[in-house]
Design a protein that fits this description.
single chain; alpha+beta; Gyrase A, domain 2; 4-stranded mixed sheet; 4-stranded antiparallel sheet; Cyclophilin
Length: 202
Amino acid sequence: MQILTVGERALLVELDDLDSVLALASALRAQPPAGVLECLPGARTVLLHCDLDRTTLRAVADAVRGMGSTARPEPPSEVVEILACYDGPDIDDVLTSTGMTRNELIGWHTRTEWQVAFCGFAPGFGYLVTPHALSIPRRSTPRTSVPAGSIGLAGEFSGVYPRASPGGWQLIGRTTATLFDLDADPPALLRPGVGVRFVDCR
């Protein structure tokens, strides 16, 4: 673990791997140190925004070091269900690369307990992880436009495109769920720590 100062009011915690990020972010959500306003996990980092009227960066860093050695991932306190139609344009390529049948792939994706590890790329885009991940290569040629609601796989992640955008993930399905709405509270359906369960639309 390495802790760096970011500006005057934030700390960046650098970690070895995503599992360590998930464990620390889970611990920080459960028991945030005094004065920590926001915890933003990434693939190998956790960014902490702090209220210096209530704490110091040194105190927060010491608290994080103290919990880092004992932090363990916790089950999500909230689970979102997403209705999915598995008819994506890349599903046959994924079946070829995995050796699965269509029913096996759909069964794996719907039975798997996914969790939002972190968000990025576009507002409302959650990188979903599972202990039972497959390793799916990205497309050799990204698409210039992926339709909103497309469900994709890339590496160990699954994700849902909240809006039309370029993308190189393998598209296995689609959903009509609204992933990001500025008028909603909170605006993002998928947020770090939230569990996700896909439900086959058939």
